[in-house]
Amino acid sequence: MTGAGVPLRELGLVLLVATAITYLVTGVVRSVLVRTGRVAEVRQRDVHTQPTPSVGGVAMFTGLVCAVLLAAQLPALTRGFAPVTPEMTAVIAGAFAIVVVGIVDDLYELGALAKLAGQFFAALLMAFMGIVFTVFYVPFAGGTTLILDQVQGVALSAIFTVLLINAVNFVDGIDGLAAGLGMIAGSAILVFALTVLHDQGGAVSAYPPAIICAALVGICAGFLPHNFEPARIFMGDSGSMLIGLLLSAASVSASGKINMSLYGAADLVALVSPIIVVIAAIALPVLDLVWAVVRRTARGESPFKADAGHIHHRLLRLGHTHRRTVLVLYMWVSAVAFGAVSFSIVPVRYAAAFTAIALVLAFVATLVPWAKGKIGPQRSVDKQTALL
């Protein structure tokens, strides 16, 4: 290990195993899906033109389970598992439930209410088993700590989890986007967890979010080579909902469980609580989700009705190519997520400067298409506009 109680080598191994297993199993899953004819047909709102295998979430879940099983065998990481804490068991149980729901939806297209019920089941299962909000530290209210009872904690955790599941699911509409955003957001939360582990000398509460994020980053990194444009396989709802659940698990695990009393009032780690970092990391998909609901209800439609009005569709209409659209969104998520994290690890003036520069670069990249006049081989501007 390196650092004050920070098992960097072991977490790195967990990440690499998750990456390798996911990468290899994805190829196997794709081969099976092609042989059995299980491919996603092209819908009007899609940006791909060829039927493509889906259900890539199976490979991602396999990588997750293998990575967690490895972590449980590493002495430096055993503090993150039962009997010390039940959280990793809860994560696997919730992940299994959401992947099953996703597989059924990918293959047979569940109705909106049935899918929502499945999402709440997985979220409640994970909450009841140990991934639950307990307290909130409010740094801007004189160090106030809000203590939640079991009912409040489970309810809030479940709602938060379902929100993130749908946020990632909604943004998964273009090759490589969800996997990349999951990898970036997971990396940001992982950096925060490592900072806490370092500052608190290996606090038990910081182990589960660090392990979850290492595995999350790994499965996204392993799947991305198969999914980046032009995608050879889609993760499907089984994969996108898994990413959302793992982001929620990591954030709930970190939030409210860090001993902020160890930090002074002026310490920026205390001022940037875990939940703020998490909100920053998933700000883009959440905003896209909220705007989608507002947009659809304003038109008198169901908030669950799919359309082509997401952020990535709008960037395509601005003139960005398929790949450039994904890279621009990567820039925005990285700027916001790592900007928030930077306030907890470097002096405020440097963090503010880094965040400002990153946001300006993302803004410029958004407004100035790098391949003007092109939107990729999938759609024309007229067809994209006609869908709205």
TrEMBL record:
Class of this enzyme: transferase
GO cellular component: plasma membrane
Positions annotated to bind Mg(2+): N169, D237
TM stretches of this protein: 12-33, 54-76, 88-108, 120-140, 152-171, 178-198, 204-224, 236-256, 268-294, 326-345, 351-371
Chief place where the protein resides: membrane
Cofactor entry: Mg(2+)
One BP term from GO: cell wall macromolecule biosynthetic process
Subcellular location: Cell membrane
Topology with respect to the bilayer: Multi-pass membrane protein
Protein name, UniProt field: Decaprenyl-phosphate N-acetylglucosaminephosphotransferase
Native source species: Corynebacterium glaucum
Source organism phylogeny: Bacteria, Bacillati, Actinomycetota, Actinomycetes, Mycobacteriales
Gene designation: wecA
